């Protein structure tokens, strides 16, 4: 069965490309998802994309992914800094995940430096712009496979 990766984008990432372009760039989420699908086809894996502005919807999606996907790539948006519920959902389903941020959250407001997910993530990508998604998918294709070990070493 083809390796399957779930790509989750949280609140306001539907505005990517038009939202604060000096911080997030001009590529839209639609472009990101299209590129992710092309990349996935090249890597012979499947990528399912999901975006929601609602914390509970993201928790539901993570719960539904149990036993269905090999790994999760998540840009939790502002929920990064607030959501115990998303942390608990990711830990509850036991699916390895990569946390990604388009911007360098460490070079911005102090409160953006704290993440409820980073200490449990397999990897954290930030500040690469939307290229971070490409990097995350390549990493996931190589290292996030159920039954093939998840070690990146
Ligand atoms: O919505 C976002 C986007 C973000 O996750 C990023 O991709 O850089 C960074 C978060 O601090 C912010 O709330």
From TrEMBL:
Instruction: Tell me which Pfam families the record gives.
Output: DHquinase_II
One of the GO BP terms on file: quinate catabolic process
Named in its record, the pathway it takes part in is: Aromatic compound metabolism; 3,4-dihydroxybenzoate biosynthesis; 3,4-dihydroxybenzoate from 3-dehydroquinate: step 1/2
Q: Does the keyword Lyase apply?
A: yes
EC number from the UniProt entry: 4.2.1.10
Is ATP-binding among this UniProt entry's keywords?
no
Residues annotated as binding substrate are 75, 81, 88, 102-103, 112
Q: Mind listing the UniProt keywords for this protein, alphabetically?
A: Lyase, Quinate metabolism
Reactions performed catalytically: 3-dehydroquinate = 3-dehydroshikimate + H2O
CDD domains listed in its UniProt record: DHQase_II
Q: Give the residues annotated as active site.
A: 24 (proton acceptor), 101 (proton donor)
Q: Matching PROSITE patterns, A to Z?
A: DEHYDROQUINASE_II
Residues marked Transition state stabilizer (site): 19
Report the GO molecular function annotations: 3-dehydroquinate dehydratase activity
**Family, per entry:** Belongs to the type-II 3-dehydroquinase family.
Function text: Is involved in the catabolism of quinate. Allows the utilization of quinate as carbon source via the beta-ketoadipate pathway.
Q: How does it assemble?
A: Homododecamer. Adopts a ring-like structure, composed of an arrangement of two hexameric rings stacked on top of one another.
Q: What is this protein called?
A: Catabolic 3-dehydroquinase
Gene name of this polypeptide: qutE
């Amino acid at each position: 069965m083809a390796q399957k990766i779930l790509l989750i984008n949280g609140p306001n990432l539907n505005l990517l490309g038009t939202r604060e372009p000096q911080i997030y760039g001009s590529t839209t989420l639609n472009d990101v998802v299209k590129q992710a699908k092309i990349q996935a086809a090249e890597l012979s894996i499947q990528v399912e994309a999901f975006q929601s502005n609602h914390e509970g919807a993201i928790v539901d999606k993570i719960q539904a992914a149990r036993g269905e996907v090999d790994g999760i790539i998540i840009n939790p948006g502002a929920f990064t800094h607030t959501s115990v519920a998303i942390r608990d959902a990711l830990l509850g389903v036991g699916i390895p995940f990569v946390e990604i941020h388009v911007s360098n959250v460490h070079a911005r407001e102090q409160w953006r430096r704290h993440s409820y997910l980073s200490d449990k993530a397999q990897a954290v990508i930030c500040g690469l712009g939307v290229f971070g998604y490409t990097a995350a998918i390549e990493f996931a294709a190589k290292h996030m496979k159920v039954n093939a070990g998840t070690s990146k070493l």
